[in-house]
Amino acid sequence: MSVLSALPFLKPVHLRSPRSSPGGQRRHTLPASEFRCLSPEDAVSVFEIEREAFISVSGDCPLHLDEIRHFLNLCPELSLGWFEEGRLVAFIIGSLWDQERLRQEALTLHKPQGTAGHIHVLAVHRTFRQQGKGSILMWRYLQYLGWLPCARRALLMCEEFLVPFYQKCGFEALGPCQVTVGGMAFVEMQHSVRGHAFMRRNSG
């Protein structure tokens, strides 16, 4: 059994539009809202959203298309996509890391024995921003990490102006990150996920 199939909260009841045909029979429609792990087939859609979200702000993307494919082939279970009517509207891509703090090689490596979920990128499609979707997706992702037997915490790096957003999501700043990209400096942030799984497993 896959991790995903064992986590019913990650796959909510699919809400379908109550459309009916003239004869009174309901027509088949795509789920109105669905959360699922991403696959390599989603890579192009992921990159299109990421490119629009980041290039206009920083001039570059956290992950290029080949790197997205790399992680979605290597550890798809550490990604999460939000789909509306079958269309990807927001996503997170992560991997596992095995050290206390992020280092330069964390940008490209997945450490299967690691205990930290390294969140590489969170992005929302431009037409769905300012709706709270980024916060909701992050909450669901942290819940999901809490169920993985190996994960104890989540790590990410972000620019200074994004620190308040991630603090509202429950992250704490660890200080300047050792990782640099094109001369850009980042703040490293951490969130414990151990409590999420404990509360779920002991909630009756």
Supply the key terms.
globular, disordered N terminus, Acyl_CoA_acyltransferase, 7-stranded mixed beta sheet, GNAT_dom, phosphoprotein, transferase, aralkylamine N-acetyltransferase activity, alpha+beta, 204 residues
The low-pLDDT segments are 1-6, 11-22, 196-204
Task: Indicate the mean pLDDT.
Answer: 84
Count of separate DSSP helical elements? 5
> Main sheet: which strands, in order across?
1-2-3-4-5-7-6
Strand runs, count: 7
The H/E string reads EHHEEEHEHEEH
Q: Radius of gyration, Cα only, in angstroms? A: 18 Å
Secondary-structure-derived class = alpha+beta
Q: CATH topology of one domain, anyone?
A: Aminopeptidase
Q: What is the CA-CA span between the terminal residues?
A: 22 Å
Considering the protein shown, what is the CATH homologous superfamily of one domain? Gcn5-related N-acetyltransferase (GNAT)
Going by CATH, the architecture of one domain would be 3-Layer(aba) Sandwich
Question: What composes the largest sheet?
Answer: 7 strands, mixed
- Which range best describes the helical content: under 10%, 10-25%, 25-40%, 40-55%, 55-70% or over 70%? 25-40%
Shape, principal axes of CA atoms: globular
Q: Could you provide a short overview of the structure?
A:
With 204 residues, the protein is of the alpha+beta class.
Descriptive overview:
With 204 residues, the chain is an alpha+beta fold. The chain has a domain at 33-154: Aminopeptidase (3-Layer(aba) Sandwich), CATH 3.40.630.30. It contains five helices and seven strands. It has helices spanning 43-58, 65-74, 133-147, 163-168, 194-201; strands spanning 34-36, 79-84, 87-97, 116-124, 153-158, 172-176, 187-192. Strands 1-2-3-4-5-7-6 form a seven-stranded mixed sheet, with helices on both faces. The model is unreliable at 1-6, 11-22 and 196-204 (pLDDT under 50). InterPro entries: Acyl_CoA_acyltransferase, GNAT_dom, SNAT-like. It is found in: Cytoplasm. Keywords: Acyltransferase, Biological rhythms, Cytoplasm, Melatonin biosynthesis, Phosphoprotein, Transferase.
